[in-house]
Amino acid sequence: MRALPFAYIFFFRGTPLLVQIFLIYYGASQFEAVKQSVFWNVLSEPYWCAIIAFSMNTAAYSAELIRGAIQAIPRGELEAAEALGMSRPLQVRRIVLPRAFGIVLPAYGNELILMLKGSSLASTITLLDLTGMARTIIARTYTPLEIFFAAGMIYLLISACFIGGFRLLERRLNRYQHYRHHIPHEMAEVDPRLQD
């Protein structure tokens, strides 16, 4: 059972995104069975081929991020849940998933930003994204420096919005850490053990 996801993650993490886009867009048309199937309406469009390639690529990276986050949960927390009599599904719902989500959030934000920047590769399969539109404008105006700089600034602005959004979400999800630091000072008179 582990071989299939391992092979999937190994392939998509080990090969360049550009090669994956080419394999889906140009490779699918090499098979007559694909051309005769219902999937050809989707695989013949560069937009959907790019979406499929980006989704499969980011799914492989996200799977590794989530696996690492789950393994990073301290064993003591799960042992404490078992001591309280929690069933395994309840542990997953109340401890594993919330803790893993908080751990994985910064790394997943980086993955989304990398995928945003990787979207510029979609212009290689005739898709007019931001980079493709910049190339079209350059062909008309012969001003590559200004146009590519403007495109870079747009990517930077979108990335800044992603970064700000993820920082707010991370701060909101990890509020308990800030609260935990204030408890010993406020509650020390009630129970001195809370200072530890």
TrEMBL record:
<keyword id="KW-1003">Cell membrane</keyword>
<keyword id="KW-0813">Transport</keyword>
<keyword id="KW-1133">Transmembrane helix</keyword>
<feature type="transmembrane region" description="Helical">
    <location>
        <begin position="96"/>
        <end position="116"/>
    </location>
</feature>
<comment type="similarity">
    <text>Belongs to the binding-protein-dependent transport system permease family. HisMQ subfamily.</text>
</comment>
<dbReference type="InterPro" id="IPR010065">
    <property type="entry name" value="AA_ABC_transptr_permease_3TM"/>
</dbReference>
<protein>
    <recommendedName>
        <fullName>Arginine ABC transporter permease protein ArtM</fullName>
    </recommendedName>
</protein>
<keyword id="KW-0472">Membrane</keyword>
<feature type="transmembrane region" description="Helical">
    <location>
        <begin position="147"/>
        <end position="169"/>
    </location>
</feature>
<keyword id="KW-0029">Amino-acid transport</keyword>
<dbReference type="InterPro" id="IPR043429">
    <property type="entry name" value="ArtM/GltK/GlnP/TcyL/YhdX-like"/>
</dbReference>
<keyword id="KW-0997">Cell inner membrane</keyword>
<feature type="transmembrane region" description="Helical">
    <location>
        <begin position="6"/>
        <end position="26"/>
    </location>
</feature>
<dbReference type="InterPro" id="IPR035906">
    <property type="entry name" value="MetI-like_sf"/>
</dbReference>
<dbReference type="InterPro" id="IPR000515">
    <property type="entry name" value="MetI-like"/>
</dbReference>
<dbReference type="Pfam" id="PF00528">
    <property type="entry name" value="BPD_transp_1"/>
</dbReference>
<keyword id="KW-0812">Transmembrane</keyword>
<feature type="domain" description="ABC transmembrane type-1">
    <location>
        <begin position="1"/>
        <end position="166"/>
    </location>
</feature>
